[in-house]
Amino acid sequence: MPKVHVYIDGDNFTIGCRDIYYSKPDYKALVRLIARECKATLGTVRYYDSTSSNPATQPRQQSFWEELKGKHIEVCLGRTESNYDGTFRQKECDVMLACDMLYDALTKQCDVLALVSGDTDFGHAIELVHKAGAQVWWIYLPSQSHLHRLLQLIPDEHRILVDDKRFRTIRQQQTYR
């Protein structure tokens, strides 16, 4: 049976779930769903994020990361940088994710790579993973289905849309409303 590694663009997917479904996903349930849909055994799961710029949020964030680690999900941290207008943005997270995908494909760590993100910046990495001979699956939210670049690179049978029905199976009990 093939092995799947899962790469979660944490900020992108978590905020998307909160905005659409008013809840966080249970990431352990999500990766089990992915493995089942891909008909593969579960390999490494990585969650990419960076520390919040708000010190009041950081303890909750740390607790969440510890919870993920307890579910055998690796947490890969980039950094947070301020913008000229006083807002903040993540740095290095997408590059780390893309590099990890490429490394795993080139070194044959897995047969299938599952990208949980709606970010088109991963297009070139997906092309190179395909050239290395690995399959790429795309897990995305309804608000992210307009991403034509990823639609061109990943065939229908390798896409998992986390719609209302699927989200109910992976939702955490706590809500944001």
Describe the protein's topology.
Blueprint: E1 3-9, H1 10-21, E2 23-25, H2 27-38, E3 41-49, H3 58-70, E4 74-77, E5 79-82, E6 88-91, H4 93-106, E7 112-116, H5 123-131, E8 135-140, H6 148-153, E9 159-161, H7 164-170, E10 171-175
Parallel strand pairs: 1-3, 1-7, 3-4, 7-8, 8-9
Antiparallel strand pairs: 2-10, 5-6
Tell me about this structure.
By secondary structure, the protein is an alpha/beta fold. It has a domain of 112 residues: Rossmann fold, CATH 3.40.50.1010. It contains 7 helices and 10 strands. The strands form 3 sheets. It has a 6-stranded parallel β-sheet with strand order 4-3-1-7-8-9. A two-stranded antiparallel ribbon has the order 2-10. It has a two-stranded antiparallel ribbon with strand order 5-6. Strand 8, helix 6 and strand 9 form a beta-alpha-beta unit. The relative contact order is 0.21.
CATH domain topology of one domain: Rossmann fold
- Supply the CATH superfamily name of one domain: 5'-nuclease
Care to count the β-strands?
10
N-to-C span: 41 Å
Provide the CATH architecture of one domain.
Answer: 3-Layer(aba) Sandwich
What profile does the largest beta sheet have?
6 strands, parallel
Low-confidence stretches: none
- Class from secondary-structure proportions: alpha/beta
Strand line-up across the major sheet: 4-3-1-7-8-9
Tertiary shape: globular
Quick description:
The protein is an alpha/beta fold and 177 residues long.
